[in-house]
């Protein structure tokens, strides 16, 4: 008689753990723009080190995790390669965005990813697009225009950073669609380890060709890169990937709502970046639109 009673309790506990992992992961990856601003290397180079330094830790996790059925298949199958390449594009573009515009703008615009995920799912997988989603998408886009508005007075550099934030959302949306396909058969640990490795390999030549500073000059610079790798990639992205594999999409969307808020708070506390009224209003509208779009997706 005890088994039926224990099963719902165990399922509830698992969901509680996954939700806690999701929230902690969102708070962790919100440190990424802070580390990028403090980095002594170039934006693409810091993206490379974020993934390269995380690879040993992620593979240790993958080796310690029992293999799912699909993990025995070719680790470099097309979807796995695409996941790594899309994430490489996401990091490279976003890190440049952070240098050109404010942390708040770059993070909020990058979190338009749910819009592109749903559009991609509609185009690729034939998933329905509801009126609620379309309303939320329109609201989010309107918030983006409000957010970007002050950049017109700051010159082309800020506008370029904002545009790169939107491109970041496109890359991350493509990455999420690839991971969604992979999770049907493969474990989260395996996906994270392989895709992060592919990402690092793709970012290395981009970093070298760009002529950026590849190595930090001080021990503090190395600590910043290890912060990116351990706090944001290993701990943050892995927790979110774990949670997204165990929670419904409505729970997963919490991370996309919490991250920009926490990034703005960190930027104010650490970098002294104060959000103006237009940023606060635009950010609130974007978050409301994303929430509505995810609710109707």
- Report mean pLDDT, rounded to a whole number: 79
End-to-end distance: 39 Å
User: What is the chain-wise order of helices and strands?
Assistant: HHHHHHHHHHHHH
Q: Based on Cα principal axes, name the global outline.
A: globular
Which structural category do the helix and sheet elements fall into?
mainly alpha
Radius of gyration: 19 Å
Keywords:
297 residues, mainly alpha, 13 helices, 0% strand, globular, disordered N terminus
Kindly describe this structure.
- The termini are far apart.
- This protein has helices at residues 2-29, 32-38, 43-52, 55-64, 78-100, 103-110, 113-125, 131-148, 156-182, 188-210, 219-246, 249-271, 277-295.
- It has 297 residues and is mainly alpha-helical.
- Residues 1-6 have low confidence and may be disordered.
- The chain contains 13 helices and no strands.
Task: Write a short abstract of this structure.
The protein is mainly alpha-helical and 297 residues long. The protein is 80% helix and 0% strand.
Write the layout of secondary structure elements.
Elements: H1 2-29, H2 32-38, H3 43-52, H4 55-64, H5 78-100, H6 103-110, H7 113-125, H8 131-148, H9 156-182, H10 188-210, H11 219-246, H12 249-271, H13 277-295
Helix pairs in contact: 1-11, 1-12, 2-11, 3-5, 3-10, 3-11, 4-10, 5-6, 5-9, 5-10, 6-9, 6-12, 6-13, 7-9, 8-13, 12-13
